[in-house]
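Before the break, one more example. Copy the sequence into your notebook; we will annotate it together after we see the structure.
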Amino acid sequence: MRIGLTGGIGSGKSTVASMLAAAGATLIDTDAIARAITQSRGAAMPAIEAVFGPSVIASDGSLDRARMRDLVFADAAAKVRLEAILHPLIGAECETQAAAAGPGLIVFDVPLLVESKRWRALVDRVLVVDATEETQLQRVLARSGWTPDAVRAVITQQASRAARRAAADAVIFNEQLTLEELEREVRDLRWA
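Here is what the structure looks like once it is written out:
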């Protein structure tokens, strides 16, 4: 079975992904793939430099994430151009990893699952980890060093809570849950 896991920034999606992996699922993390292909000499870097120029390339040859984030938040067309480079490479690597995984539960951790539209056809079920925007904000501020405005900008760019919930086959509402309670919610999921 192929599960698409998604949730807004600060929802607890990565914690749920880790719990599913610890329970034996194969985890395929699209953010990790994106980081790998945008490192120095990563598969996406020649195209990124060709499209966006050297201003988005860090001194070590990797993607300057802060500069690119500022650019795509300010220019929707830049976001579309970046996604046109990254998404096919990420998709190909996901399929390579899924083919290598063999039988059993495969969890695709996809922050932009709802926004990309194509993912729904690639998975059997969608699991959404949900939290209020205020909780998302507080969690990200506690771990990232970002400003509240930067966090709100990311939340605004992501699918709404309602859109994610509408796309879900199952929802874990991760609001004021202890880790033990969250783990129980994950354990109690049934995908019959």
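The mean pLDDT is 93. Residues 36-103 form one domain. Try to locate both features in your own notes.
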